[in-house]
Amino acid sequence: MLELATATRVAQASSPAESPEFASSRNHPPPQLHLPLSTFQPPASRLEHAILPPTVGSETTGGGMTSLLGNVVSINVGRPKTFDYFGHTVTTGIYKLPIDGRVMVRRLNIDGDEQADTRVLGGGQVDGGELKAVYIYAAEHYDYWRSELGRDLPYGQFGENLTVAGATEDLVRIGDTLRVGGALLEVTQPRTPCYKLDIKMEQPQFMTQFLASGRTGFYVRVVEEGEIGAGDELSVVESDPSQPTVLAVVRGQAE
């Protein structure tokens, strides 16, 4: 049985200097912190997407060579929670906690984890499904958000399954094949946040700030199931340099 981690994991290496690709996102007003849920607007009136200025991501190693991208810092899982939100019943799987030990990555999720909204809308599944089986977020971004928000944030705060040092959006391309532990993964798309992230952060309009920062993380599909654990290396097995980086897709510009 999986044991919940008793303390926040500490990254195994110091965070690299902030990429210039993300630097412009600091030019926004400081947010208001720790606002009660009564200050939020009902879901029907929320902005679901933000229009972003274009930018160009960095190159990844190509040529069919395996390239070390980083290391898994934390594995985070959780079951859906249901609560009332402005008279609406909301169910979300965004609340995740770090776990100890090794765990299996399955075709549709990680053992111990479960997605909440599995409806198919606009040709795609809202949460989960083969194309969004696992959500990866860069550990480097935690320093940025801790500074921006002025508070501590434990790994798993953004609902990610894998917190990975080195897996920033400017270094990962759509279609990249990644090896972590015994699992083989393929990058499918950036994360597009919704109002449930605002609720989790207790901050109205955080999803817009999150998206505009470019620090969205990305989803992967599971090509080969396998066992993974914190400390495992994450490597790029195959990458097509003609494909856009995750950051370029977020910014609304294919390379």
Which descriptors apply to this entry?
255 residues, seven-stranded mixed β-barrel, two-stranded antiparallel ribbon, 13% helix, disordered N terminus
Q: Helices and strands in order, then pairings?
A:
Blueprint: H1 20-23, E1 67-77, E2 81-85, E3 88-92, E4 97-99, E5 103-105, E6 120-121, E7 124-125, E8 134-138, H2 140-149, E9 162-165, E10 177-180, E11 183-190, H3 195-201, H4 206-213, E12 218-224, E13 226-228, E14 233-238, H5 246-250
Parallel strand pairs: 8-9
Antiparallel strand pairs: 1-4, 1-9, 1-14, 2-3, 5-13, 6-7, 8-12, 10-11, 10-14, 11-12
Describe this structure in words.
The chain is an alpha+beta fold and 255 residues long. The chain has five helices and 14 strands. The chain has helices at 20-23, 140-149, 195-201, 206-213, 246-250, and strands spanning 67-77, 81-85, 88-92, 97-99, 103-105, 120-121, 124-125, 134-138, 162-165, 177-180, 183-190, 218-224, 226-228, 233-238. Strands 1-9-8-12-11-10-14 form a seven-stranded mixed beta barrel. The model is unreliable at 1-17 and 26-61 (pLDDT under 50).
H/E element sequence: HEEEEEEEEHEEEHHEEEH
- Structural shape: globular
Report the sheet-strand fraction.
25-35%
Biggest sheet strand order reads 1-9-8-12-11-10-14
Task: Note poorly predicted spans.
Answer: 1-17, 26-61
Gyration radius, to the nearest Å? Answer: 17 Å
Query: Biggest β-sheet, characterized?
Result: 7 strands, mixed, barrel
Q: What gap, in angstroms, lies between the N and C termini?
A: 45 Å
Which structural class best describes the helix and strand composition?
alpha+beta
Number of E-state strands: 14
Give helix % range: 10-25%
Helix count, DSSP H or I runs of 4 or more residues: 5
Question: What's the overall average pLDDT, rounded?
Answer: 78
